[in-house]
Design a protein that fits this description.
Blueprint: H1 2-18, H2 27-32, E1 37-42, E2 45-61, E3 64-68, E4 74-79, E5 86-87, E6 92-96, H3 99-135, H4 140-172, E7 175-177, E8 182-187, E9 194-195, E10 200-206, E11 210-217, E12 229-234, E13 239-247, E14 257-263, E15 276-292, E16 297-299, E17 302-308, E18 314-325, E19 328-333, E20 341-342, E21 355-358
Parallel strand pairs: 1-21
Antiparallel strand pairs: 1-20, 2-11, 2-15, 3-10, 4-6, 4-9, 5-8, 6-7, 8-10, 11-14, 12-13, 12-15, 13-14, 15-19, 16-17, 17-18, 18-19
Helix pairs in contact: 3-4
Length: 370
Amino acid sequence: MTKIYRTFGLLCGLTLLAGIPAQGQTPAAQSAAKPSLTVTVTTPQTASLAQKISANGNLAAWQEAIVGAEANGLKITEVRVNVGDRVQRGDVLAVLQADGLRAELAQAEGTLAEATASAQEAKAQADRARSLQQQGFFSNAQLSQALAADASAQARVQSARALVQLQNVRLSQTQVRAPDAGVISARQATVGSVVGAGTELFRLIRQGRIEWRAEVTAAEIGRIQVGAPVQIKAASGQVLQGKVRMVAPSVDAQTRNALVYVDLPAQTGSARAGMYAQGEIALGQSQALTVPQSAVVVRDGFSYVYTVGADQKVTQLKVQTGRQSGDRVEVTSGLKAEARVVASGGAFLNHGDTVRVVDAPALPAAPAAK
């Protein structure tokens, strides 16, 4: 029995010795010696990328005309347009009651006819008096009276004619006409209502044109040029192409932002005035250092890339990213142009890991952003 126990103890000792690592080699050193991942590396490329400013703003009418009543105290008898209708310059939008004005016009025309007849008689008397005065039958005083009567009669004709013109103008005001071509954006006119002079009846988007009023910071104003192309996406999903028409000459004292006015095409599809829209204002092209988008790892809100050193160990670098073009992203700081960057798989790496590097397939040069 004693011999059996000694044999069992010897076997246990050999088993324990087999599990002890070799002298001078820790478990961490053994695992570090093995590559944790096989990766491909790339070098940053210089590409020409578009410079853009992103902005938010509202779509608004380019110019909005208010169409009101010019005649006073007349009833609306007909409304010929509604919201959304397209009209041309001079189209009749509404008709006001004109019976009373027609009667006044007829009265003014009668007064004109009477004044004209009296003026003709006064002129004849003046001509007769002038002839008789030359023959010595009329004195100078009598001639002066005849001439004064003639002048007075002519003045009454002019006054009556002006009254007729005034009544014609008032009668024409019973037809409310469009001051320009465009789209009716609001309507307050109602059949049967009595309106006063200056009462707003319609609102008209002139030419049917809308514009985008983008808000930009004071620091960005100097970079925006008139005529710069703009791409806008409205809340309806409509994508529009426009051009910068004007940059506001002042900055809002409360928000410290300035407005940029962008002209849009006449046909805007589903985009409407009052919609919220996002857009990008193009500033031109510039050179940038880019890496594949797959090489950038985002952790805790920061962007990182992994570079491979001569000892095949990776180093984690915190970088700042910028513009994006296709599958490449700009690195503005934190990376050198000659660095060997892990092209993909960085999410599975940690700082100091050992990797196995394999050759990457040849890739075409990054195209210039349009």
